């Protein structure tokens, strides 16, 4: 059984810890340690997540009996796309124990409903070219290829696909 709620600044440290843990478990083996550490330091920390919230990024958290099981972060478009009224799903991170349990679907539904309520014409996300599991999920939801860009992890440039969902 999962419960969901919006995050507050009090949750920032737990979000940062969870993000570092899940990102490293999923992608950490792909990068030199200095690039991985630079990325994690730049993207995930209690102060960083609090600042993101203060700047309007909305976090929705999923919990199970073991604690934080997943989250999504949504907000203004922050990638190279010329679509001024569109919004972005910045992160959708699910703990391994919660994958396949409907958490990603619930968080995605919440993100899409939020974007529609904001009057956005589209929702964008970025997905690593080799993250096939995520790509399958995003396709099922209705996202389609839009373009690509270099997603930087330290000094390593990853080819990421930018996908768009018309709302």
Automatic annotation (TrEMBL):
Residues 2-167 form the N-acetyltransferase domain. Its EC number is 2.3.1.-. This is Protease synthase and sporulation negative regulatory protein PAI 1. Coiled coil: none annotated. Keywords: Acyltransferase, Hydrolase, Protease, Transferase. PROSITE patterns: GNAT. The gene is paiA. GO terms for molecular function: acyltransferase activity, transferring groups other than amino-acyl groups; peptidase activity. CDD domains: NAT_SF (cd04301). One of its GO terms (biological process) is proteolysis. It comes from Terricaulis silvestris. InterPro entries: Acyl_CoA_acyltransferase, Bact_Acetyltransf, GNAT_dom. The lineage of its organism: Bacteria, Pseudomonadati, Pseudomonadota, Alphaproteobacteria, Caulobacterales.
